[in-house]
Amino acid sequence: MAKREDIKHVLVIGSGPIVIGQACEFDYSGTQACRVLREEGIRVSLVNSNPATIMTDPEFADATYIEPITPEFVEKVIAAERPDAILATLGGQTALNTAVALHERGTLAKYDVELIGADIDAIQRGEDRQKFKDIVAEIGGETPRSRVCHSMAEVRETVEELGLPVVIRPSFTMGGLGSGLAYTAEDLERLASLGLTESPVTEVLIEESVLGWKEFELELMRDKRDNVVVICSIENIDAMGVHTGDSVTVAPAMTLTDREYQHMRDVGIDVLRAVGVETGGCNIQFAIHPQTGRMVVIEMNPRVSRSSALASKATGFPIAKIAAKLAIGYTLDEITNDITKETPASFEPTLDYVVVKVPRFAFEKFPGADPTLTTTMKSVGEAMAIGRSFPEALGKALRSMETKAAGFWTTPDPDPVTLDGAIDALRTPHDGRLYTLERALRMGATIDEVHQASGIDPWFIDQIAALEELRAEIIDAPVLDGLLLRRAKRSGLSDRQIAALRPELAGEDGVRTLRHRLGVRPVYKTVDTCAAEFAATTPYHYSAYELDPDAETEVAPQRDRPKVLILGSGPNRIGQGIEFDYSCVHAAMALREAGFETVMVNCNPETVSTDYDTSDRLYFEPLTFEDVLEVVHAEQVSGTVAGVVVQLGGQTPLGLAQRLADAGVPIVGTPPEAIHLAEDRGAFGDVLTGAGLPAPKYGTATSFAGAKRIADEIGYPVLVRPSYVLGGRGMEIVYDEGSLAGYIERATEVSPEHPVLVDRFLDDAIEIDVDALCDGTEVYLGGVMEHIEEAGIHSGDSACALPPITLGKMDLDAVRRSTEAIAFGVGVRGLLNVQYALKDDVLYVLEANPRASRTVPFVSKATAAPLAKAAARVMLGATIAELRAEGMLNAVGDGAELPEGAPVAVKEAVLPFHRFRTKDGQGVDSLLSPEMKSTGEVMGIDYSFGTAFAKSQTASYGSLPGSGKVFVSVANRDKRAIIFPVKRLADLGFEILATSGTALVLRRNGIPCTVVRKHFEGADNIVDLIRAGEVAMVVNTPYGNHGPRVDGYEIRTAAVSRDIPCITTIQGAAAAVHGIEAMIRDDIGVRPLQELQRALRAEMAGE
Amino acid sequence: MSDTSSPAALVLEDGRVFPGEAYGARGASFGEVVFCTAMTGYQETLTDPSYHRQIVVQTAPQIGNTGWNGEDDESARIWVSGYVVRDPARVPSNWRSTGTLDAALVDGGVIGISGVDTRSLTRHLRERGAMRAGVFSGEALRDRDAMVARVLESPKMAGSELAGEVTTAEAYVVPADGERRFRVAAIDLGIKSNTPRMLAARGVETHVLPSTATIDDVLAVEPDGVFLSNGPGDPATADGPVALTRAVLEREIPLFGICFGNQILGRALGLDTYKLRYGHRGVNIPVIDVATGKVAITSQNHGFALAGEPGKPFDTPFGAAEVSHYCPNDGCVEGVRALDVPAFSVQYHPEAAAGPHDAADLFDRFAELMEGNR
């Protein structure tokens, strides 16, 4: 069949910013698609608003549009590029929805563009609940039984047949309003009658509940010749009722006989065919009744998904890559299996290991949010682990999470633990339920009791019970001999866990010493898709312990090229996400090109870094000291390790630097001592003092009394935070003594080892972020970013502009001088991020991080300089001068000296507040603060700040408004400056709402406006109006130092929860007006990044 | 497992020893060691007569999770001569489970070994080829040289005629589901329960005959078609079934063969057989139908194969024939078809227990062939 010759140009749609439920798995899939299509000689255009992705790197597509993924903008891209086809099945729900919208508005027909992969009909058949139920019924499968009812009599009759509990879904209500689960007859009467009332057509769907059933998924692929293969089966340990993204999952399925598995496979294949996904991947979920084995189909996604990324990493079968090839006409048998290089992709991977995925949550970031796990996904990331057995993989996955607990027994039990308490806790799905399960078993619960309470399959419970028995054996053994130690390691226990059971071994280091002395070390096996049936050529490894001391390790010797290990960033979490993966991937690309063998170590299955194509070798391993040290050892046996890169993966690898160095591992780039200089407040203070750089006054306290003394001395407001943090964890602005006392009380871990930092808070300052590169003799400023928001919001949560829009040359010179002084003073080799606050013409240093920052990809794209690649080279000995000469960096100048004609890039944060609810169902507090809460970001780029800003807002919120009500409330000092922009808005037809003070000024200047109440002035105030959806945009500048700024925060909170733009600076207001005008004129153009960068580079070179 | 664990060893004829723990029955047993890459269906695998005199290594590490049930046996007993696994389940979990795998092995007297680095073992077999081996535990566990010597004394697979050891002693009939449409004489060379079941579902009354059946025995059934089953051993030894097949072809009675039956039909058509280095044993093996180019994911279990070239017609005493199916992994012949007489066969298992059901339509083709021959 081979490739279609009529497709010469494909537009790939990405998934936009990272949000809960849609993360970097789509960067992985999109990157693979772009790579594959270009290898096939097809022109690739790409649209994606997320700058932190690898796929939006200019070298991955022919034309990369970092533009909002809205039908309007994508249509502009189509008009500019005129592609033959669109591939929308690799960009998550965002891309799929956009494709449907493009179809509905006639764009696809107008430009004669074909949707490849899944067509509109297939997408709709997969997504429409009723159509899907009908399809499953047609092929002889089952979905949960249900009936549409119009009266309570009908409801009762239906329930008599289905039995309780049932799910009640009112028809045509917004956002699932009125739906619920009825366990009792009383529940049913209440919920169903409410549902009938809520429904505008007096109609409810009564559906059989599958809560507590076993949950499975299949990942399937189909080609145009109708060949279908199952890539992977996944079993959820958490029963139905917990979103699969929030469940602990296992691949392959562990508790199905062949008969049941083949039945599932048959139904899955029939569903895929009936839905009509022509080519590509899809994911189907099943529920199985644990006692009767009855199987129902829950849903399907006619596209690649988070699960398919997991399945790809779990099996070594790259679903997205193959999907891209199938979309352009190849059949499965025409595609070679990358790993064996001999056999075709038309087969079903078979595993000789077990894979466990564990979700990572961030409830601590959202106080008040209900941590109960439900069918709404709440996790922000995940880690995967591979082991030769379930317990081994589970142990590795749990210690990959980088939570306080790193596997069983590593933290004290919450007291008091009782048998009944533990069993009772198991009834509600929650983060860390397997820890609760282990405790219940330890307290004496039987497997059946645990099964009854949790719905978890007895096989999994027994696996943990076996660990429990092993624990007792380890504790009771007179000495820890080689065999017992080997059995412990083979069951996935870390040195740290064993140390917790055997205190006399003096901790993890003692266990390791003993282990090495007894020769108990892991072997490394290979993920090869075929359970060793064929030779694998791809070194994709995982560690395992075997009982046989002579067990074989599969790491091949390689002595020709020096090796560099790159430590990744582990599971995504708020504050440490895809941006760090970007830097790690860049390091791998640059160092491979520079002649090194690159070795990636990471445990995040969503990422590009864990694609076996990215580095020369991949170790899918937890990023703990123990696991990394063993990988280093294995690679040292294989050849020469030139160094380990720790500064690109965020705080995770950076935190390992000192211990690795102490263990004799060569750390390249900024040495651990220098890292310490930047991270230790006292030492860093000395660096600043030595260089004559001002910093906000601060002090370190280990008690409330100490904190109060410092605050009194430097004056309120103060910024308080624990030392050594990432993403502003636990950081707060405190305005008075009472709040300070409250903070210290909440921060229970305050101790001499964990002091609290108290800083003067610079109210009303301009915040500036700098990413710089230092080789020891020269500092290259990658970019200087000016925050658009007021100070006091975490840099990760605030919008910023590059080049800075209001800073003058003197300010920039000060930034350069200060950054150089810090880079040299600390001793940076590689990347450095510095945050400054500019207040009253004084540049204060807030903090410096000697590592890649979140903004590295944004800066690299905006300034056409690949900072992470350059940093990796610098770490391995290249100088900035050499990199300039090579052309990697600009020959002259740097990111702080962008020419006048340079494009303006705006970064905007994307926040997850709408995902969370309190126990009683209310929205959580969406206050922005110094603690980071955003999950992702977008970039708007254009030749003027206004349009760039408009794009950033469109990409993150949906759009700037074209009409409606704008609320204006500004500080006195801003009143003069706001007149002109507001006048313009009024002229454009917006209705202006204002608080009384602002209204007075506006009316005097001939701007008609309506007065609304402030938040504390009673009912129908501005916050109520915003919540009611009556306001299209908010312009609210802070009132300065006159007391707490709560009113502004309340307004912002309301705006965020309604997803409307909230402008907090005059610059922002002017920008928004500029953007709105451009939108109304409809002359916002789209430009490929390649073109923008080419022009910028030419201009910088003085051409 | 831990407190009762006792050592065991898997000893290969090339002298390599894989240590482990005793599993199932204790003692010593011998056979050809082969690996199976299926992740599901250990019960079907163990009871598949084609595994007679083989020591089966499961590459999937967690085995026994779903226990043992009364429904999934593919014959009346476990046939493997030894069983090699990494991590056996302690507590099985499945709504159909009535016992544990361990108990089934003990009951069947099957000597197993657990805790083996099965991946290293598989890689070894992949490189060196399937070979003779022994599983030793309990009192049979001796020093290495003594165990290797015993392995070397055991018979080789090549040249072994085994169908006679697994075939039914007496002929028996499996009735059709519902109305009988066809009558088939099935030659039991190691037939699996699911085959007559699949035939029955298509209205076939199956007369299962011993492997020694003559053409007269077959004709006595007045069959609409003849079926050649799967089975163990070296096809080069199966002269009796080959002669029978030629007699069937001469009479132009529709014939369908699977696995061992494919090798028999191939030989009857004049092709040679050879031993594969380590065989095809799994449920994920792609097969391409030369006529349509379509891929089926198939269940396979064979150590021998027919020599031939996909798609190329060849002359036979019964007119032209062709290699109709092949495996894209290695080009191995996976099916042959006579073009002038109604006969075809495949090397894989359309009855697929364990395994995917992609090839189940071959039974329909057999039914069509019989229908067309009326």
Structure, described:
The complex is a heterodimer of chains A (1103) and B (374). Chain A is α/β, with parallel strands linked by helices. Helix content of chain A is 37%, strand content 19%. Chain A is globular, with a radius of gyration of 29 Å. In chain B, the strands form three sheets. In chain B, strands 10, 11, 12, 13, 14, 15, 16, 17, 18, 19 and 20 form an eleven-stranded mixed beta sheet that branches. The relative contact order of chain B is 0.13. Chains A and B meet through α9 and α16 of A and β2, α3 and β15 of B.
Layout of strands and helices, then pairs:
The complex is a heterodimer of chains A (1103) and B (374).
Chain A: E1 9-13, H1 25-39, E2 43-47, E3 63-65, H2 71-81, E4 85-87, H3 92-104, H4 107-110, E5 114-116, H5 120-127, H6 129-138, E6 146-149, H7 152-162, E7 166-170, E8 180-182, H8 185-198, E9 204-208, E10 214-222, E11 228-236, E12 249-251, H9 258-275, E13 280-288, E14 295-301, H10 306-315, H11 319-327, E15 354-360, E16 381-387, H12 390-399, H13 419-426, H14 433-442, H15 447-454, H16 458-476, H17 482-490, H18 495-501, H19 507-517, E17 523-526, E18 540-544, E19 563-567, H20 578-593, E20 597-602, E21 617-620, H21 625-638, E22 641-645, H22 651-654, H23 657-662, E23 667-668, H24 672-679, H25 681-691, E24 698-701, H26 704-714, E25 718-722, E26 732-734, H27 737-746, E27 756-760, E28 766-774, E29 779-787, E30 800-802, H28 809-826, E31 830-839, E32 842-849, H29 856-863, H30 867-875, H31 880-886, E33 904-910, E34 936-942, H32 945-957, E35 965-969, H33 975-987, E36 991-994, H34 996-1004, E37 1010-1011, H35 1022-1027, E38 1033-1036, H36 1046-1057, E39 1062-1063, H37 1066-1081, H38 1089-1100
Parallel strand pairs in A: 1-2, 1-4, 2-3, 4-5, 18-21, 19-20, 19-22, 20-21, 22-23, 35-36, 35-38, 36-37, 38-39
Antiparallel strand pairs in A: 6-9, 7-8, 7-9, 10-11, 10-13, 11-12, 12-15, 13-14, 15-16, 17-18, 24-27, 25-26, 25-27, 28-29, 28-31, 29-30, 30-33, 31-32, 33-34
Helix pairs in contact in A: 1-11, 5-6, 13-14, 13-15, 14-16, 15-16, 18-19, 20-30, 24-25, 25-28, 26-27, 32-37, 33-37
Chain B: E1 7-12, E2 17-24, E3 28-36, H1 42-46, E4 54-58, E5 62-63, E6 82-84, E7 87-88, H2 101-107, E8 111-114, H3 118-128, E9 131-137, H4 144-153, H5 163-166, E10 172-174, E11 182-187, H6 194-201, E12 204-209, H7 215-220, E13 225-228, H8 239-250, E14 255-258, H9 260-268, E15 273-289, E16 295-306, E17 313-316, E18 319-326, E19 333-338, E20 343-346, H10 361-372
Parallel strand pairs in B: 3-4, 4-6, 5-7, 6-8, 11-12, 11-13, 13-14, 14-20
Antiparallel strand pairs in B: 1-2, 1-9, 2-8, 3-9, 10-12, 15-16, 15-18, 17-18, 18-19, 19-20
Helix pairs in contact in B: 8-9
